[in-house]
Structure formats: C-alpha cells, structure tokens
Amino acid sequence: MPDVLLGWDEHLDAAWQDIGGPDAHGTPGRVSRIDRGWSTILRHATDVEPLRVRNIGADVAVGDWVVVDEAIERVAHVISRRSAFVRRASHEGDRAEADVLAANIDVVFLVHALTAPPNQRRLERELVLAFDSGAQPQIVLTKSDVADGIEATVAELQAVAAGVPAHIASGITGVGLEPIRAAAEGGRTLAFFGASGVGKSTLVNSLIGRQEMATSEVREHDQRGRHTTVATQLLPLANGGWLIDTPGFRAVSLWLSGRGIERAFLDVFDLMDDCRFRDCKHDQEPGCAVRAAISAGELDPLRFASLRRLVAEEAALEEEQARRERIADRRKSGREPLDDDPDVE
User: Fold this and answer.
1) Within this chain, do residues 121 and 217 fall inside the same structural domain, yes or no?
2) Same domain as 231, residue 114
3) Residue 295: inside a domain, yes or no?
C-alpha cells in the first residue's frame, strides 16, 4: 500500500485500481523533482534513497504519483491526478501546450511581496489558475518585516481577491507562518507560486525548518529578484505534510479554464445577472447593471476590462486547440489539409 504520509488518499487509490493496481520496486511513488527528462521518486515519506528514472514520453509533474517499469529505467504509469496547477507553456515555439507546475495539491498559496506595488491584474490571473487547479487558493503577502504602507497594499489586493484568505507573513521573523503550517495538517500538500523576488524561498526555508532553498537580494529600484529556485521540488514540512516550491515565473498565461474565471470574478458575474437583458454586452445597453456599477464607483473599470481580456484569451486558446484537433483528425484519416485550408499552420 502506498504511504499515506506521502499524500496517498482514497482518490488516488481508486485511480490506481482503475488501471489494474500496477506496482514495481516499491512504487507507486511520488515525484519529488524533475531534471531534464529524469524524475526523482519517493516511495515513502522517509525515503533517503529515492529512485531516479527517465520520464521521456510521460506527462509527469512534481507531485504526481507514478509507477516505474520492471527495469527501473522509466516511468511506466502516471496515476490520474486529483488536482493540478496548470498554465499555458510560455517557452518560445510552444503553441497551446499545457505546463503543469504541480500535481495532487491541496492548497495553492499565491505569494506577493508587500514591498512591491500591488499587482491586481497578476493576482486575478493567478486566482483563475488556482481556482481551476482543484486546490484551495490562499494568498501570502510577504516581507512584512520591511514593508511600509501595509494596510493600503493589503486593501488593494483584497479588492480583487474574490474572498480568498490572505496571510501577512515574514520568512525572516516568522510572523504569520502558523496559519500556513496549519494548512498542511493531515499530510496535505501545499504549493507556492509567485514572481521572482517576492520572498518565496525565504518563506519556504522558514516553513521546512532548514536552509533548503537558496535566496538572493532583490533590485532596489523595482524590487525584482533573480530565480533562486531553479527546479520545482516536493519538500517535507517539519510537522508533517508536504510543500511544493516552484521557480518564480513572469508569465501567467491561462490554460483551458473550467469555472476559474467565473469564480475569480464572481462579483462581476453577480452584477451581470442583474442586467435587464440576458444577452447584454455591457456596452451601451439600457439597464446594464455592470455599467451602472462602474458609473456609481462600485466596480473598477480596470477590473471589468481585465475580465474581458481573460475571456477573450480563453476563447482564442479554445479555438486554437479546436483547430489543431481538426488538423490532427484529418491527418489521422489520411486527408492532408489543403494549402488554402484556414486550419493549416
């Protein structure tokens, strides 16, 4: 039986049984790190000699549960995930490819620094991805020990936080860390996401109780830092549970959304329900509750514009995916697209 202290649960067990319950060399085990085609796999919570196997051809992310082959050479099976934080891959040349940053997570912490100007638009995007992940989103506002004007920054971010809990914390002084630790009780897995320089590595070191992650100074003029976390890792917390730390990333590109946009902009969608016409475009129509709220100062027009951009981005992504599927279907059936076919890449 896989180790429950490593995060194994009933959902994963059912998914494992669905594929016949394969096991080999102490796996199913959990992916703790990925390096250029190699996966490090823990077989139990105190594994000091984890397996290291190839994952070429396997869709593997840190946090996944996998089974290796009999030769201990490669990942043979990836057990169906119960949650995953996914964005659109940002590498040049990739088109509509999913980038799974962490799998089988319970709580997603979106990390922002109190020392930087509040970035509402980034937080909105992160919340869409977090809601779509299947995990519970929370916000961590770091560097409270050196920040000024904390109340104003918190208020500005909470204005777009969709009711998500926000924690004010410091990885240096330890202030505000207890609610974060408590979220891992019961062997749960926490994941941390944020831009470079927000204090994520310092926070992680405090939570795990040792200097695991390298830290660096941020630039004085813009409070940006270098990537001090170079690889996503699954790390044990001192009092039980697990933590996935990810490298800082600039691009917060949407992937195919479930209800993430609706949940992240619930206040705006509630207003839309009050419009006079069900097909209201929220432009010049009479009885538009959205426009009325903007005119009354109850809805920031920048927030509404942000929603429209995200909806358009998602629609374009869905169309691109559909187009690529049509091309693949034609080639599978032996019908090559014509040169003037609008679906030709």
Assistant:
1) yes
2) yes
3) yes
Please tell me what DSSP assigns to residue 130: H
pTM of the model: 0.88
CATH number for position 324: 1.10.40.50
User: Per the structure, how many domains does the chain have?
Assistant: 3
- Can you read off the two tokens belonging to residue 276? 């006079």
Could you tell me which residues come within 8 angstroms of residue 25 by beta carbon, excluding any fewer than 6 positions away? 43, 51, 68, 70, 72
Contact 215, 200 (CB under 8 A): no
Hey, what's the torsion of the CAs at 40, 185, 179, 189, to 10 degrees?
A: 30
pLDDT at 140 over 80: yes
Which residue do the tokens 């929603």 mark? 307
- The residue out of 212, 245, 278 marking a domain boundary is 245
Specify if 343 maps to a domain: no
Q: Which residues contact 166 (CB under 8 A, 6 or more apart)?
A: 138, 139, 140, 141, 154, 157, 158
Highest mean pLDDT pick, 90-104, 132-146, 312-326: 132-146
Cα–Cα nearest to 246, from 97, 126, 121, 79: 126
Distances (CA, A) of 313 to 129, 261, 308, 321: 13, 11, 9, 12
End-to-end CA distance of the chain: 47
Measured CA angle at 303 (ends 302, 304), to 5 deg: 90
Are residue 100 and residue 142 in the same domain, yes or no? yes
Question: CA 127, 296, 260: angle at the middle one, nearest 5?
Answer: 15
Q: What domain range is 281 assigned to?
A: 260-332
Rounded to 5 degrees, φ, ψ at 129 are -65, -40
What are the backbone angles phi and psi of residue 259, rounded to the nearest 5°? -115, 20
Tokens standing for residue 214: 């390298």
**CA gap 97, 88 in Å, rounded:** 6
